Amino acid sequence: MEKKRSAGVLCHISSLPGKYGIGALGKEAYKFASRLKKSGVSVWQILPLVQTGYGDSPYQSVACDSGNPYFIDLERLKKQKLLTGKELKALRKKYRGMPLDYGALYEERYATLRRAFSRFNFDDEKFRSFVKAGRFEDYALFMTAKTVYGGGFCDWEEDLKRHEPEAVARLCTEYHEEYQFWQFVQYELWMQWEELHAYCKKLGIRILGDLPLYVAYDSADVWAHPELFKLTEDLKPEKVAGVPPDYFAEDGQLWGNPVYDWAAHEKENFAWWTARLKTALSTYDLVRIDHFRGIDRYFEIPASAATAREGTWCDGPKERLFFRLGEEKRRIIAEDLGSIDEGVRALLKKTGFPGMKVLLFAFNGDEENEYLPKNIGENSVVYTGTHDNNTVQGYIDGLSTEEFILFRSRVAAALEEAGVAIKLGAHGEGLSEAIVRLALASKAQYAIVPIQDILGLGEETRMNLPGRDSGNWQFRLAVPCSGYDMAKLKKMIKIYRR
Q1: Global pTM value
Q2: Are 265 and 229 in contact (CB under 8 A)?
Q3: For labeling, which of 11, 34, 188, 249 is most exposed (least CB within 10 Å)?
């Protein structure tokens, strides 16, 4: 039976408009979901919801299952009488006209949340049940220790560094209010998330979440489970993750995340990983596993290496990682970009997961290019570009005259082959929209378009440049998407029957 083809939009929560310095789970998120519904969009893709760490990246978190406290809707806290109108007015004035500034947020937002926490009723029955469930126990303890002692967990006293039960219990007792604060921010965030998610379900919109393959070294995950990672006796990384030289970086990418000790995971029947996958599948309707190729074979680099060129390939757990999942496996999508070989292709076939096709990689003149619209199969998720790419318009603007002429001619040929009617101007007019149309017209089960490409925005709105240490993850919509742009999208979705 033919699968229903769906259209989706990629827009992270942080990119939503709003009055308090960063997108949040408040009225702008509900407005955005409503606008997606009116446009015929049935999938909203976001980046990891986690509390960000180094470089403000959602792929480097203090805890892999955490939520970002910055996303808490402050207006909701006002309704709960945890913040006052005067306090919110002062914040609106502070952030008026300011672009996304993580430094300013760090200095202000936690102070605001602590003020709200000081007015919160710890005896609230729902909150007590939330804490008792234990989902954020390691996170709350880890953040408490970081607040009290600073630095990374390797800098703490030996017994706490090694997560010894007596030291952990003492930390919770001596700094219980701090521990409660970190439970409080997760409680508020996840209550708000569940309400937004329920609203999206009611609209018929599925949320596609993102699960990074790796976790950060200085995280609650590594602190609480060091035996599951390749660490030295002193709990320092022995090997770290990355990728070899590729399209994005000539020296490869040295991510620095500790790699998994897959033999240790197999000994426990992948219990930690299964719990992580099940949490993601209960949080979102669809889950994209980032860097899926690392499950077949992964690239590990000595922790002392200067670049990723010194790394080697090692076998991952392959399909064994998923053996404890049931029907929910059907909701997983594989990010199979980068250095792909027959092993990854075989793993995709065994799992049945849809892979990704990025149209910005399609037009190199190779008729066998797997990203060309004519070569994209049904069990795929097609993108104009991802959060790691330039925007389509930014990519076009960066082409030389010769490159532009070739690109335009190849896109024109693809449009003709796909039966997509759009006029391309001599100077690039219509090219960005043409790529969006090709994605929607493809056979792929899902067609996902970043909001920047729907709006035809340029390189200045790029979400991430791999290998760049700062200046990423800052894109925000200045105002809600215009009715004109979304009406245009609705028309395209209808034409291409998504």
Answers
A1: 0.96
A2: no
A3: 34
